[in-house]
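Thread title: Can someone regenerate the structure for this chain?

I was given the following input by a collaborator and told the matching structure tokens would be attached. They weren't. Posting the sequence so someone can regenerate them.
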Amino acid sequence: MDIRHLQYFMEVARLGSFTKAAEALFITQPTISKTIRSLEDELGAKLFNRIGRTVELTDAGKVIQQQARIIVKSFQNLSSELDDLRNLKTGHLRIGLPPMIGSRFFPQIIGKFHQLYPDVTIQLFENGGKKVEQDVANGALDIGVTVLPVTENVLNHFSFTEEKLNLLVPSQHRLAQQDCAELSALAEDSFIIFSEDFTLHGRIIDACIRAGFQPKVIYESSQWDLISEMVGAGLGVALLPETICQQISRDHVHILPLVNPSIPWQLGMIWHQDRYLSFAAREWLRFTREFLGK
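Best answer:
Regenerated them for you:
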């Protein structure tokens, strides 16, 4: 039995005629008669009594009609809801964003997306890039944003920005008047960096080790503005992306390019390569790829 059997049955019951039901359904009478016989055989009960050119429901048919009405209505509702999803009238997205990324790139994107699809709800989760990767990989998030490259091999991505880390030093720091600074020149400085669940945490430490020293980390934070304020208070130095540095007050902080080596900062949108993506999720990826590409 499938939904088509019940739809044919309901139409015959409504019109009291195989011929009229066939005409209404744009099928042949033998087709609808065969379908009803198949349904009766499967249920083990006669559903219609023939009275001249018309038919009427048997007691078993009346029982089936009550349940079939519910099933067919539910199927119609399901089809309508799926159509809404396909047309992006409804939907829900769980998106993971590192705090420093979300405030810079996504308020405008989310606003534009909401204008196009007002009934698609978006739930944002602010975590470091490593945690975002893990949650997309295990299905807790639909989509995420992180620093590339990703470490989880089940993730797909597209890149939407690439820049470098800048050095933040207090205004009275010995390097404050230079045009740029080498990473090795910071061997004796105290570092203020992002906490361990941020991709930049390990990337900065690894870069320092390759430059010949183990950085002395005195404080870790998940907030870039707090990091910059602590630098301004003279507690240490920090490395932040160029985009974030544009939002930092220069009153007590000097910002300069980091060279030899520079540390890249590439952002990407990530999703699980093997897990089903909803219609809304696929449209979010299409929309953000186009929007950020501009």
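The chain has a mean pLDDT of 91.
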